[in-house]
Amino acid sequence: MRAIPLSPDEEPAAMAQLYFYYSAMNAGKSTALLQSSYNYQERGMRTLVYTAEIDDRFGAGTVSSRIGLSSPALLYNAETALYRDIAAEHAAQPIHCVLVDESQFLTREQVKALSDVVDNLDIPVLCYGLRTDFRGELFTGSQYLLAWADKLVELKTICHCGRKASMVLRLDSEGKPFSEGEQVVIGGNERYISVCRKHYKQAIEQGSLQAIYGAQTPLN
């Protein structure tokens, strides 16, 4: 089955493929996922949408975008047997595309399972996630998607200076950037902003956003 083009200028593929759409934060990943799912559904095709159980900012079992779009989603955690679950759904009613939000939280085994969905079931799998964390290090899911995906697509956003934002800063409750601590924090007061590499390094070295933004920081 030929996959639906993900954009008007993208040729449909003859065989299913594993895609990884990666970016810094607030680059429109969830919006792109929801649009891709809609493209299939409006043609009468069935999609499965997954999101990470660990991320419940918009309510459990929901993929939501900053522009107000949303969709119900199946939850996954580190123990979820994705291949088994998807194969069972496919046997009950054919699936034409699987879409995974927050795919940076996938385990190595789950990325392999999604590649098996592509190779064995001939179902396209579209993964959307962050490339690196606030320390500038790869997430496990992103590491193996970068290694194993058939197609890599960078979704771009910009730093305040106009450069491409490729890094993520974690800010504490006082708005100060820091680069130490657990990769994932549940229920904390931290917030994140996307910046270019130059301003990421400056913020970490100086421990302040005001050196970059002046008095009008993103928290004002």
Textual characterization of the structure:
The protein is of the alpha/beta class and 220 residues long. It folds into two domains: 18-154, 3-Layer(aba) Sandwich (Rossmann fold); 167-213, no CATH class. It has six helices and eleven strands. The strands form three sheets. It has a six-stranded parallel sheet, sandwiched between helices. Strand 6 (97-100), helix 3 and strand 7 form a beta-alpha-beta unit. Helix 2 packs parallel to helix 3 (108-121) and helix 3 (108-121) runs parallel beside helix 4 (140-148). The N and C termini lie far apart (51 Å). The relative contact order is 0.17. It comes from Pantoea brenneri.
In short:
28% of the residues lie in helices and 21% in strands. With 220 residues, the chain is an alpha/beta fold.
Strand content: 15-25%
CATH architectural category of the largest domain: 3-Layer(aba) Sandwich
| Whole-number tally of structural domains | 2
Overall form: elongated
Query: Roughly what is the average pLDDT, rounded to an integer?
Result: 85
Structural class: alpha/beta
**Helix share bin:** 25-40%
Largest beta sheet: strand ordering? 5-2-6-7-1-8
Number of DSSP helical runs: 6
The CATH topology of the largest domain corresponds to Rossmann fold
CATH homologous superfamily descriptor of the largest domain: P-loop containing nucleotide triphosphate hydrolases
Q: Which residue ranges are poorly predicted, with pLDDT under 50 across at least 5 consecutive positions?
A: none
What is the β-strand count? 11
Question: What composes the largest sheet?
Answer: 6 strands, parallel
The first-level CATH class of the largest domain is given as Alpha Beta
Q: What does the oligomeric state look like here? A: single chain
Q: What is the string of SSEs from the N terminus onward? A: EHEEEEHEHEHEEEEHH
What gyration radius follows from the Cα positions, in whole Å?
18 Å
Distance between the termini: 51 Å
Binding site for ATP: 23-30, 101-104
Keywords: ATP-binding, Cytoplasm, DNA synthesis, Kinase, Metal-binding, Nucleotide-binding, Transferase, Zinc
Catalytic activity: thymidine + ATP = dTMP + ADP + H(+)
Active site: 102 (proton acceptor)
